[in-house]
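#struct-help
A.M.: can someone run this one for me? Single chain, 81 residues.
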Amino acid sequence: MITSVQQSIIEVVAEILECEESDLSMGFSKEENDEWDSVNTLRMFTSLEAEFNVRLSMEQFLNVETIQDIVNLIEAEKYDH
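D.P.: on it. Structure tokens below:
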């Protein structure tokens, strides 16, 4: 079962990468899509901060490899504060 946090992240990533939400999964990796580049990583970063009203570490965000990594990072920030 997908959580609301996961669904929201998938929606943001799909919009930025210009792909269908159904093409994405928690294991989806930036290696699987040429559009997941440094510019779109920055767009994801700012969009997700706004969507979840959190402050993320750019250094940590640049190290994410999968959508699940993004979920983990946001959940850690959202629930630790």
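A.M.: thanks! Helices lie at 4-17, 38-52, 58-62, 67-80.
D.P.: also worth noting: The chain has a mean pLDDT of 94.
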